[in-house]
Amino acid sequence: MPITILTWKSLLPVRRARGSHIGAWLRQVMICLPLTVLVVPVAGCQPTMPPPGNRLPTVTFAHKAPIRITAEAVQKTVALPGELPPGDVSGQFSPNLRDAFNIWVDSRFVADGTPGVFEVQLVEAQLTRQVIADNKDGGLSGLFKDEQHWKYTGKMQVRIVRRLPGQVAPHSFVEAAAEGFFTTSQNITLNMLALEKFRLVESLITQIDEQAEESLHQYMGDIVN
Q1: Overall pTM surpassing 0.90 (yes/no)
Q2: Kindly report the CA angle at 50 between 139 and 42, in degrees rounded to 5?
């Protein structure tokens, strides 16, 4: 649609007899000014819409070589508290932290068949949402300001336990923990919100992976091949 750019000179009446065209000029100003304001939010919202047909990536560790462990098997255990934390929204995440945990363990650890147990425990996996206050300014600056409306927080912790053959008590263990959050404006699109949720989960499991690998080499180097 063609856009007409108005200038103050274009609104001024041609010089004629005193008092003529004053009413018409005022009516032009009253009509044109609201149109100029309404164009601003429409133009500002366009970059927030992702291209159609975009698909979210998946959590993957295909770019990293598996860690060979001196153990008969790699066991996964979910040892989370029975009660969900206030504001839990884990069900709104895809993948959620449990999904990411399963992908991580299956992708990164391979047992070589030597007697012994290598157990990876998920001991914390929280995804919560919290309402935070709007701080809207007055005037036009407040009208077009993106308010921070929701805060999503993620917490994750894993424990890796080594058990010697025939023993129940752990011989040694290491832990890794990660925490992160993001905030959203109240007018965020569903596609953008899903992408931010994925990035939070990916960030947490990436931190867990880096910490766990470093701790394994440092404290359980004798079983890491």
Answers
A1: no
A2: 30
Q: Over the chain, what is the mean pLDDT? A: 78
pLDDT over 70 (residue 156): yes
Contact by Cβ (8 Å): 26, 11: no
The residues facing 39 across adjacent strands are none
Q: Which amino acid is at 176?
A: A
Q: Which CATH number fits domain 61-223: 3.30.160, 3.40.50, 3.30.9, 3.10.20?
A: 3.30.160
Domain boundaries, the chain: 8-45, 61-223
In one letter, which amino acid is 202?
A: E
The predicted model gives 28-39 an average pLDDT of 37
118 by Cβ neighbours in 10 Å (0-12 / 13-18 / 19+) ranks as buried
Beta bridge partners of 127: 154
